[in-house]
Design goal:
mainly alpha, 240 residues, globular
Length: 240
């Protein structure tokens, strides 16, 4: 539905050279559609997500919130591992493999980040970043409610990452399906709780929050891809 709507909501390239340069730099030909999707996201944020996030911060002790974040990070590690392997970064892949093994065992299924205590720090790698190291173009910028800023390449990478996350394959029985729902819902709530102050400040201080988010996200994603390309560390951990 999103892609079918794009044709009618695409901004044509301007003819003025300066405006054309800005148009290409923004990489946002579907800006009218994206702004509508951003407004939907922010409507949901103010009506539901922000109050829930504030209640979560008020009601849930900090150690419990940290455990929820640790579970989310641990169960994403297989996707990080395969992304590191795909990017040809054995040191990063080794770190993510050890993080998953240690936190799933000594960390009690990811409730505690024991791996960081023994030298395996958490890092972010996803299939979209891996495709970026292969030279796959980003495609146009998109804003998708519930996902946030993305583009065609990273949108595909997000889908692949979901397929590489083992919690998405839990079988029925033993309460595992309920745990899966709780994991995803609480992880989403905790993610918003960790960013609610930043979003509030952004809305107060920025003349155009949509443009600011678009620019900041694109620069951050490119810096992540560049850092992945430049990561040529040996496979031996720093503390060894």
């Amino acid at each position: 539905m999103l892609l079918s709507a794009c044709g009618s909501l695409r901004n044509p390239p301007p003819k003025d050279p300066e405006a054309l340069a800005d148009y290409k730099a923004a990489n946002d030909p579907y800006e009218p559609l994206n702004r509508d999707m951003y407004n939907v996201q922010m409507w949901a944020y103010h009506k539901a997500l922000r109050p829930i996030a504030k209640a979560w911060i008020w009601a849930v002790p900090t150690p419990v919130r940290h455990s929820v974040a640790n579970i989310n990070e641990t169960w994403r590690e297989p996707a990080v591992f395969f992304s590191d392997v795909g990017a040809g970064r054995p040191r990063r892949a080794g770190d993510s493999f050890m993080r998953f093994a240690i936190n799933m065992s000594a960390g009690v299924a990811g409730f505690f980040d024991v791996a960081s205590l023994v030298g395996y720090k958490q890092h972010e790698t996803d299939p979209g970043m891996t495709m970026g190291t292969w030279g796959v173009p980003t495609g146009p910028y998109l804003f998708i409610p519930g996902v946030g800023p993305t583009n065609f390449r990273d949108g595909a990478g997000y889908a692949i990452g979901q397929g590489l996350t083992p919690i998405n394959y839990v079988p029925r029985g033993y309460g595992l399906l309920s745990f899966n729902w709780a994991y995803n819902i609480l992880g989403t709530v905790d993610g918003f709780a960790n960013t609610v102050d930043q979003i509030d400040h952004l809305e107060q201080d920025s003349l155009d929050p949509y443009s600011y988010i678009r620019s900041a996200w694109q620069q951050n994603r490119q810096s992540q891809v560049d850092a992945l390309k430049d990561d040529h560390r040996a496979t031996t951990p720093d503390w060894y």
